C-alpha cells in the first residue's frame, strides 16, 4: 500500500469516526430537547392548576365564610354604619 492510499484510508476512517460522533451528539441533544419539552409541558399544566386553585381560594363567598367562621367577623348592621365625610 502506498503512502497516498494509507493516507486516504486514514482520512476515511477519521471521517467515519467523526460522523458517528456527530450523530451521537445529535441524538443526545435531541433527547435533552425532548426532556425539556416534556418538563415545559408539565410546568404549564401545573401553572394552569395553580391558577385554578388560586381563583377558587379567593372567591368572595369563601373569603366571607372564612372571615365569619375563623375570625368571628360579621357584616355591620345598618345602625353601625357611619358615613364618612371629608
Automatic annotation (TrEMBL):
The keyword RNA-binding does not apply. Its main location: membrane. GO terms for cellular component: cell division site; plasma membrane. It is found in: Cell inner membrane; Cell membrane. It is a single-pass type II membrane protein. It holds the Pfam family FtsL. The keyword Cytoplasm does not apply. Keywords: Cell cycle, Cell division, Cell inner membrane, Cell membrane, Membrane, Transmembrane, Transmembrane helix. GO terms for biological process: FtsZ-dependent cytokinesis. Belongs to the FtsL family. Essential cell division protein. This is Cell division protein FtsL. The gene is ftsL.
Amino acid at each position: 500500500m502506498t503512502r497516498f492510499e494509507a493516507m486516504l484510508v486514514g482520512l476515511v476512517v477519521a471521517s467515519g469516526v467523526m460522523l458517528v460522533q456527530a450523530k451521537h451528539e445529535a441524538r443526545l441533544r435531541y433527547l435533552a430537547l425532548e426532556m425539556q419539552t416534556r418538563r415545559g409541558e408539565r410546568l404549564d399544566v401545573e401553572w394552569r392548576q395553580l391558577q385554578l386553585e388560586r381563583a377558587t381560594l379567593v372567591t368572595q363567598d369563601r373569603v366571607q365564610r372564612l372571615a365569619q367562621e375563623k375570625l368571628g367577623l360579621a357584616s355591620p348592621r345598618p345602625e353601625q354604619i357611619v358615613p364618612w365625610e371629608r
